[in-house]
Amino acid sequence: MVNNLDIIKKYLEKHVDNPPEILTPESKIKEIGIDSLGLLELIFEIEDNYGIHLPENLPMPETVGQLLEIVEQYKPAIGNE
Which of 2, 25, 56, 61 is within CB 3.0–4.6 Å of 66 for a Cys-Cys bond? Predict the structure, then answer.
């Protein structure tokens, strides 16, 4: 099973020219090479992976950890997938 951080790492490998070697919850989204359009694309990829739809009025996360918290709130619980 792929975890949320793995999804972000795979996205970075595919879409960012120089992805960071170390990705932590404290990593700033802009500093790891994801701009606002890239963040939307990443959110769409996460939604597709979990079969969820995140509300449009969510505050845009500034760190990887904030993005992970949002995903955890909306993804199905294990066993309900």
Answer: 61
The two tokens of residue 3 are 């975890």
Residues 50 and 72: beta-carbon distance below 8 Å: no
Burial class of 65 by CB neighbour count within 10 A (0 to 12, 13 to 18, 19+):
middle
Q: First-to-last CA distance in the chain?
A: 11
Q: How many structural domains comprise the chain? A: 1
Structural domain span for residue 14: 4-74
Task: Please write the tens of the pLDDT for every residue from 10-42.
Answer: 889 998 888 888 889 999 999 999 999 999 999
Please report whether residue 27 resides in a domain: yes
In 5-79, beta strands by DSSP E = none
